[in-house]
Structures are given as C-alpha cells and as structure tokens.
Amino acid sequence: MFESLFQSTTIPVLEQVVNFAQARQNVLAGNIANLDTPGYRTRDLSVADFHARLTQAIEARSQPQTIRSPGEPALPPHTELAHVAEESAGILRHDEDNVSPEKQVTEMVKNQIQHNLALTIMVSQFRLLQAAISERA
Q1: Which pLDDT tens digit goes with each residue over 22-81?
Q2: Using an 8 Å Cβ cutoff, are 31 and 100 in contact?
C-alpha cells in the first residue's frame, strides 16, 4: 500500500537525482585529489546521458499500463526508474583536457546545489505525505 503511495509521487525520481549527484560528487572530488598526479586525466559522469535516461524512465512511467493476462506477473511501476541507476553506472567519461581546479570546484558547487534542491523537494514531498496520512492537511 505504501509503496504505491510513494510511487505516485516524485520521490523515486528525486531519489535517482540524489544518487547521481552523490556519485558525481565522488568522481569530482577524486579529480581534485589527483590534479597534481602526472598523467592523470580528469573524469566526470555525463549529466546529459543521465538526464536523457531519466527522461525516458519518466515517460515510460507515465505511459498507460498494458493489460496482462491472468497469471502473468505485473511489473512494478518503478522498475523503469530502477534501471536508470543501473544504466548510469557505465556513463563515466574521461575528459581529455587537463581541467583547472577552479573548474572542478565550480562543477562540484553546481552538483551540490542540484543535490540540495532534490533533497529539499523530497523532504517537502514526505511532509505532504505525512500530512495526508495523519489527515492534518
């Protein structure tokens, strides 16, 4: 019951955004830690690829569910979003430029803002659910 309640909100999408931002923050921090390493090439997670996969999952989620024959297991509506995290594991790319520390820090700050925004919206969603459940809207 609660799973379907959560799946009807933006919480699963926000969860994917938070997970991606955390993974990207680790990669960017590794770049800063290794800037003085001879021959080190900076790395990053492709934000464009992540957004494209997330958009596809959201569109698939909003498609009307197909009618299944009796006995055929129904896929939960959040499976498309779960595949975003699995598919995002392979979108690591190496930047051929030797990027400056300033650019790496700027990317980290932008990533942190995205992370904090997703968490703020998620907290708001949980508060709305809590108010609805406790009938204190």
Answers
A1: 999 999 999 999 888 888 888 899 999 999 999 988 888 777 655 545 555 544 545 555
A2: no
Nearest to 32 by CA among 118, 92, 88, 109: 109
Cβ pair 36, 115 in contact under 8 A:
no
Question: Of 34, 55, 52, which Cα lies nearest the Cα of 43?
Answer: 34
Q: Report how far residue 128's alpha carbon sits from residue 137's, in angstroms, rounded to the nearest whole number.
A: 8
Domain count, the chain: 1
Cα angle 22, 28, 31; round to 5 = 150
Confidence of residue 91 (pLDDT cuts 50, 70, 90): low
Which residues touch 68 (CB under 8 Å, ≥6 apart)? 74
Taking the CA atoms of 15, 17, 18 and 20 in sequence, report the sign of the dihedral they define. Answer: positive
Q: What is the pLDDT of residue 30?
A: 92
